[in-house]
Structure to design on (750 residues):
């Protein structure tokens, strides 16, 4: 039998010599041009990292391409960022400009550092997930085509802005704490195939899976029934019982959330909050979603002070002004009715007209 | 070359941003399953619905997870993705690779799979996207030969991930890469053999900027910080201000705890260490002038998760400060106590934070042997419905 449980490759064998030698000894960094980080060590060593956009879903040929480049300019070392960008690690400063020139020639997008809109963190979508309500990659591509100049630094932003796309409410990928989040949602109550449920589903587990107590047993059919008044379309039951189907191509779509962050800088981490409850799926370009995101970004760029993330800006001006400036209707859908509801009610006369 | 037309997906090859459709097409030249994937995706774009079946358990010898079963719901139409399983490959800490390693990985995946990847998945793994049941074992065996092991799936400790940390960041308060590498090796059994109520995630960010988004998406977030005082290089501050940096609006006004004072006359910045909440803003704004403190360790945040089932949570403070040096014995003891308690009491698909909310934070703290501390809460309770145990009150009658 093959060996097991040996873990990932040791990172110490994956980092370039300059990182080994200056590990834990970095003094400061600067951003000499958009997309490039210059790290200076206490030893005086200088490392340049050149960050380029990746589609995240890549082919072997793409891997061979970036390996060719890293071998030419970076002695065969590279890394990926937590937002799926590629970083070429240049320890010989003389190779920096030639690397940038080659990347430009080959249409790689250099950017995503510091004050910029970086790559989108997103989920699998129709490409490879069974519970996908939408295609995360398609929405991501459509949005980033519009945001490219914010990525490359051609257009300026007041602070960093993080976009995430999740193809269902499971929100793989920290969507719930992003400056702008696009989340696939259902709007119709799941349908039960009673005959199938009686054969393959464990009834007590299915009943217990519902966070609002909307599911009860149906002893006559050896199945379950769902109280539509209580169902909030979370889809948890469909995971434990495959006889319950929630996909509804006519009524499924996406929602847009704003103002989340994970960094502790200045303000505490924040959840993203609902801005637009529903937009239908519009493949291949999701133009309504893309226009909505563009609008949100532009309103923020125009109105925020230097250094203000989306949620910090909204915190200062208030949600009432946000909805007005963004020209979005505030509806019953925006009022929380789940576990965090009480924490969102405003118990002060401090508000704006 | 595949003859099927994909007019909708072709639209996604236009525009400046790199296109995943182009990538699938590149793979499809050499690989029939990539071609079928593209064709099936085109039908999803036509019909507004996905075409993957629910579940299906697959596995490889010696592992209880790490591969995820995936089957097309239209196998007659797309026979080459009838089985199209995912292999989660545990990434090297910090996502660093030598090109030699990456090339080997790609050569193996070209041989056994679709030639498509996610670099990387949401949890951190290098995702190999799509192969047959038959090819799983030989593929995993060959990956093992070049030193790549599987990541986690199901009710297991999921693949750990972290920020770049000390490898290339002056703000690193802890060695995030070493920590996850050490924990990953220590917890191989918990990663590879699912034995828990649901997933459990650990992520490490070496400072409170939290570049790994640990506090939002890991059940246990390890966030580096310091507990003495930031260090200020007075000359560098003066230099920045003299060259036009707006220290008042960008730093002083933004300090959340009003810990910074600015003397405009002397151009001097001072900090009141007791007032500082180590938010990172001043350090982020003036990286050459202000740096992290010297007494470094981490805060442990418990309970971060996405909405399913009972709403999203941000991790909250469990341990305000812990020194983190190899072999991380104290940290491992805390992790074991947390996961033991959760394994004993958690219901199916109940994450640790949901269990804590159900059972009460005070009960959880007692179970894991931690004293209640004011840092754990935003504020004390406001309701008078306090639980008292029999031992805390006088016996009556």
């Amino acid at each position: 039998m093959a060996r097991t449980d040996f873990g990932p490759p040791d990172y110490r064998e994956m980092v370039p010599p300059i990182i080994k030698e200056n590990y834990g000894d970095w003094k400061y960094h600067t951003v000499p041009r958009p997309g490039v980080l210059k790290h200076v060590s206490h030893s005086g060593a200088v490392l340049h990292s050149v960050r380029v956009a990746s589609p995240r879903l890549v082919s072997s040929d793409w891997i061979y391409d970036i390996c060719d480049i890293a071998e030419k300019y970076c002695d065969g070392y590279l890394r990926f960022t937590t937002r799926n960008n590629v970083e070429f690690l240049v320890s010989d400063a003389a190779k920096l400009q030639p690397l940038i020139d080659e990347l430009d020639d080959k249409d790689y997008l250099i950017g995503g550092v510091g004050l910029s809109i970086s790559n989108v963190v997103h989920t699998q979508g129709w490409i490879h997930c069974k519970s996908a309500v939408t295609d995360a990659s398609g929405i991501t591509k459509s949005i980033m085509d519009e945001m490219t100049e914010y990525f490359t630094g051609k257009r300026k932003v007041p602070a960093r802005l993080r976009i995430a796309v999740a193809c269902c409410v499971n929100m793989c990928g920290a969507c719930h704490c992003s400056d702008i989040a696009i989340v696939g949602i259902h709007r119709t109550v799941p349908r039960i195939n009673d005959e199938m449920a009686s054969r393959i589903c464990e009834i007590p587990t299915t009943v217990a899976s519902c966070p609002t107590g909307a599911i009860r047993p149906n002893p006559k059919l050896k199945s379950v029934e769902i109280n539509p008044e209580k169902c909030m379309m979370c889809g948890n039951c469909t995971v434990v019982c495959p006889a319950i189907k929630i996909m509804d191509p006519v009524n499924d779509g996406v929602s847009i959330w704003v103002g989340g962050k994970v960094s502790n800088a200045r303000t505490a981490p924040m959840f993203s909050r609902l801005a637009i409850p529903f937009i239908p799926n519009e493949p291949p370009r999701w133009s309504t979603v893309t226009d909505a995101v563009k609008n949100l970004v532009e309103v923020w760029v125009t109105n925020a002070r230097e250094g203000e993330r989306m949620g910090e800006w909204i915190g200062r001006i208030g949600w009432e002004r946000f909805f007005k400036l963004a020209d979005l209707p505030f509806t019953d859908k925006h009022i929380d009715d789940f576990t965090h509801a009480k924490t969102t009610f405003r118990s002060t006369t401090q508000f704006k007209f | 070359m595949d003859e099927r037309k994909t007019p909708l997906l072709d639209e996604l090859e236009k525009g400046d941003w790199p296109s995943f459709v182009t990538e699938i097409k590149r793979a499809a030249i050499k690989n029939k399953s990539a071609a079928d994937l593209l064709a099936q995706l085109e039908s999803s774009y036509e019909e507004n619905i996905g075409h993957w079946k629910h579940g299906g358990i697959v596995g490889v010898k010696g592992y209880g997870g790490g591969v995820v079963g995936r089957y097309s719901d239209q196998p007659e139409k797309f026979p080459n993705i009838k089985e199209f399983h995912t292999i989660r490959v545990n990434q090297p800490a910090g996502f660093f690779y030598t090109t030699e390693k990456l090339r080997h990985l790609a050569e193996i995946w070209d041989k056994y799979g679709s030639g498509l990847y996610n670099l990387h998945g949401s949890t951190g793994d290098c995702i190999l996207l799509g192969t047959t049941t038959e090819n799983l074992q030989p593929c995993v065996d060959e990956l093992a030969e070049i030193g790549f092991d599987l990541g986690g799936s199901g009710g297991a400790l999921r693949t750990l991930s972290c920020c770049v940390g000390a490898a290339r960041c002056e703000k690193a308060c802890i060695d995030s890469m070493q920590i996850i590498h050490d924990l990953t090796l220590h917890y191989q059994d918990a990663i590879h053999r699912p034995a828990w109520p649901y997933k459990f995630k650990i992520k490490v960010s070496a400072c409170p900027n939290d570049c790994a988004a640990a506090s939002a998406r890991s059940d246990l977030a390890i966030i580096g910080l310091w507990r003495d005082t930031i260090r200020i290089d007075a000359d560098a501050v003066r230099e920045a201000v003299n060259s036009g940096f707006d220290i008042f609006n960008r730093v002083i006004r933004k300090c959340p705890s009003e810990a910074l004072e600015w003397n405009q006359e002397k151009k001097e910045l001072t900090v009141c260490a007791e007032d500082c909440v180590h938010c990172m803003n001043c350090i982020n704004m003036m990286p050459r002038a202000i740096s992290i403190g010297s007494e470094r360790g981490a805060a442990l945040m418990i309970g971060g998760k996405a909405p399913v089932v009972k709403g999203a949570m941000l991790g909250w403070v469990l341990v305000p400060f812990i020194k983190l040096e190899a072999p991380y014995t104290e940290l491992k003891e805390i992790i074991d106590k947390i996961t033991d308690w959760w394994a004993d009491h958690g219901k199916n698909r109940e994450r640790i934070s949901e269990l804590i909310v159900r059972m009460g934070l005070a009960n959880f703290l007692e179970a894991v042997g931690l004293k209640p501390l004011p840092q754990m809460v935003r504020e004390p309770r406001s309701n008078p419905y306090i639980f008292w145990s029999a031992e805390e009150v006088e016996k009556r009658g």
Chain A touches chain B through 114 residues (CB under 8 Å). Residues 11-105 of chain A form a domain with the Alpha-Beta Plaits fold (CATH 3.30.70.3340).
